[in-house]
Amino acid sequence: MSSKGTQKNDLKINKDKNPAQSGLKQILFVWSYLEWGGAQIYFLALMRSVSGQFEVRAVLPNGSDKKILEYLEASNIEYDFFEGNIDLSKAKSIGQRIKRRWNDFITNVSLGRHLSGYDLRNSIVQIDVAPWAGFALLFYLIMKTDVFVTFHTAIPELPFWRRTLWKTKFAILTASKRFHLVASNSDVKKSLRAFVNEARYRQIEIVYSSVNTEEIKTVLQDDQTRSEIARKYNFPPEKIWVCNVAQFIERKGCWVFLEAIEILRKQRSDLYFFWLGTAPLEKETVERIGGYDLENNFRFLSADEIGASRRDLLTLWRAADLFVLPSFQEGLPVALIEAMALGRACIASNINAVPEAVKHLENGLLVEAGDSRKLARAIGDLADDRFMREKLGENAHKYVLKNFDEKIIGDKMRRLYEKISCPATTSI
Fold first, then answer.
1. Total of domains in the chain
2. How far is Cα 155 from Cα 103, in angstroms, rounded to an integer?
3. What's phi and psi for 3, nearest 5 deg?
4. Same domain, 248 and 127
5. pLDDT tens digits for 9-62?
6. Scanning 68, 130, 162, 420, which has the fewest C-beta atoms within 10 Å of its C-beta?
7. Which phi and psi angles does 17 have, rounded to 5°?
8. Could you read off the pLDDT of 299-356 as tens digits, one per residue?
């Protein structure tokens, strides 16, 4: 039974349904925060890939963005809500940190109670919760069923006390055969070596971010012209379009991006920049953007401004000449590999797992994170060299379709689920 299109506190959902009655085991895809992005697109790909072999349901916070609900509905994924949500914004004071920790605790308790309403013995839980932040919730869940946690971003260097605490939590969780770690790239897996024993480290499978190749092919065959797209969004059709697709936050290099625009604006007038985000900007962010000397060369568009479907997003994206990812910390971003699949020439920070997809001067350019001058130079170089843009874009398209096909990646994850799809036992 689905709760599509509604967000109510008293949702009437048949959570007690036993998926074994249909001969299929259930997989619950769970996250506890309102923001959405690459992790949810990653989950969507997995849901589509395994929906024929398992019953699939997304469990997300009440109040989630309608856009991610539309994406779930477009993929015929049932979903329901629980009360509470984790706040991912940056705490600005000790008081805010204490308040947030309490909110996190209450949210995890609410989520645990909600999930207990399912027949967990005949379910698998794929959850986006960090072991150090959601330890108690994860421990509770592995007492009931098999739990998968996928890591997308490498664990950074930590103070000794925090590193020790995290290792202890990992040791307790990984002592259970029901706790399964997955890495979405090689860089993440390497970072986990310090937190698990050698036997568990060898068991960590890499299941890459992926693209829906059929969706990409459909968009590339779309006959909508660049002029039509320019009119729709009021973009200057004669200029070279440079875009990014991400949350407009510091970790994604948003201010470095604007600094590079400032540099280029003083040198040339043939470039137009736009940033496609998931939600409208906060007033404070808009005011800070206004402090940059951008004139009319930059525009931010939220998901609602782009259009009702992912097709609208991808069609606009396809019309860009360059894709830029100036992040300071990343996993292997879905946005990056989708841009590559669309045949866009990409410039990305040489960090974390990005080089696992972008091969410098072969299918894209890599630049030093945080260096707005080098970023501006790379953008300018490709803007001046159409042949190189097209060559990099063509190579990127071929590379992604060969290495990051959703069907192939999803099949790997399906096999991991199938390994443990027999009825759960009571011991851990």
1. 2
2. 23
3. -110, 30
4. no
5. 333 344 444 554 555 689 999 999 998 888 999 999 999 999 988 999 999 999
6. 162
7. -55, 135
8. 999 988 998 788 899 999 999 999 999 999 999 999 999 999 999 999 999 999 999 9
